[in-house]
Design brief:
The chain has about 250 residues and is mainly alpha-helical. It has one domain (about 10-215). About 60% of the residues lie in helices and about 0% in strands. It has helices spanning about 10-30, 45-50, 55-75, 75-85, 90-105, 105-120, 130-145, 160-165, 165-190, 195-215; strands at about 5, 190. It has a two-stranded antiparallel sheet. Helix 1 packs antiparallel against helix 2 (about 45-50), helix 1 (about 10-30) packs parallel to helix 3 (about 55-75) and helix 7 packs across helix 9. The chain is flat, with a radius of gyration of 21 Å.
Amino acid sequence: MTTVVNQQPPTTLVAVLLALFSAIITVLSFPNFSFSFLAWFSLIPLLYALSKPHKPAFAFLLGELFGIGYFYGTCYWITYSMINYGELPVVVAHLVTLILVAIVSLFPAVFALLTNHIVKKQGVEALVCAPIVWAGVEYLRLHISGVGWNALGYSQSFSPSLIWPAKYGGVFLISALVILISAAITLAICKRTRLTISISITSILVCLSVFFIGRLSIKEISLPKDSINVVVAQAVAPVGVPQVYKG
């Protein structure tokens, strides 16, 4: 039995709202909110929007809007630094930050463009390529712009059971695993056939396997009896005041 969800693209407004909703969920998975589990589902709205046929320019725009919301919400420290240390007016600081994140958001925009193009050419099953495309774009973002801020995999930094594969593929592999869940669920929503359900279940099992392998491989480290406690104190030096070391 085959069940296919309506393939007509959502209205422009709905697609934009889906992209922004994805951005909000992604922001919540990072500090200061730190609901890291949300990252595994955060791209479902965006991927659902991209699973429908869109003009390339609009798919690119959806990725750009997602990126602006994503980076503006997770790079709040840029504005804080400019206001408190650079003494920029609040409005100017936010405007500069917005320009910066708009530039960095070109990379999620490329992801959206490529993903939508692949799905249009190969069918909705090609959503399983989204993790590879995302990881590749994140890699390019780091090496082209030098900006590796808030790669999606960093949202799992405090979950040792989930990030151990980073020793093989860095944060990019973790990002790919995170998006794999979103892609699997989105695929199951868009088209319910034996093939798509099998792909979705397999994808989820891969991520669960990563978790359980991580749980089993992490061993509690016991301190030797002759260990000592060490405390490190860092002085708070005023920013902008020349510091002279006298040894």
